[in-house]
Amino acid sequence: MKAVLSVDVAKGKSMVMLSTEYGEVLIEPKEIKHNLKDFDELKNQINSFKLEDLTIFMESTGIYHLPVERYFKENNFNTLVINSLTTKNNYDTLRKTPEFEEIFKGSRIYEETALNFIKTFPHAYIVKEKRIDALYNNLYKTNSGHDYYYKRLANRIKEISLNSYPGVDKDHSDVKNLSDMASILQENIKTINELKNKMIETAKESPYFDIINSFYGIGEVLTTKLLGELGDITRFDNHKQLIAFCGLDPTIIQSGKSINVHGTISKRGNKYARWILFNISQMVVKLGHQCPNHPVYNYYLTKKAEGKHYYESLTACSTKILRMLYTMCKNNTTFKIN
User: Fold this and answer.
1) Under 8 Å between Cβ of 91 and 41
2) Of 2, 124, 214, 242, which cross-links 21 as Cys (Cβ 3.0–4.6 Å)?
3) For residue 171, how far is the Cα from the chain centroid?
4) Choice between 21 and 215, residue whose per-residue pLDDT is larger
């Protein structure tokens, strides 16, 4: 009797179903995680049916199908992968390492602690062979200010490695490539930080640096970026010209004799300055509860109370920030909370 195990692959997990050529469902659709425990349990369940002709069928999904494919092939199952993409491009970034991304979530995978760990332990089986104190020491030496956190993290990494089933073994060339990539990223980040510091030092020569930097929520990096795009803010005759320069001025919508001057923003100006101001607005809103009576944060709350969308509210805040910065630079005054 012929049978097919259909595998719908996703990131870190799959939906599987085992059925015969006659449509009989032997294993109802269920979710399995891409780890050794779940793979072994599924294999034992399949073997209990004593099938003579079984095919494992799945579709290539980036790199996420690789652990599934590897497990069944190494256990001598007939495994078919449709449109398999097996080029080195599957491994050309750290984002292609799901288990590391689970441990170092979001942008933390590009921080020094994560990169140093991945460079030293680029495969789950390498982690499995190491003592927990070796893992902890690697994490702790990068940032010694979080002792208890890194002890817990080292234990969690070790626990995950024991049940891990990677897409390639530890001797695969892609494992060394991953370690090398982490080293390259470390050097790139170091260079970027050096350039960033030079940019800040150059921006500090502007008479408006300290004024803009005094605005609560605008750090040295955002101040530098904003000055790089706006230059001498006081060269504009009024704040409306500055707002139009950034493309934050409203469009004028005319229909017959009706004119609406409160349309969406024009977006005709400097898109980079507009993006920086949006980031500043996000930062002010994020930190607003730490700064009572912050005028921009209170303005944001007012817009939200009016039923404005989050992004629409932040755009309005960007315009208000620009008006305030223009006035501060014109009058040579720093930011103050009333």
Assistant:
1) no
2) 2
3) 29
4) 215
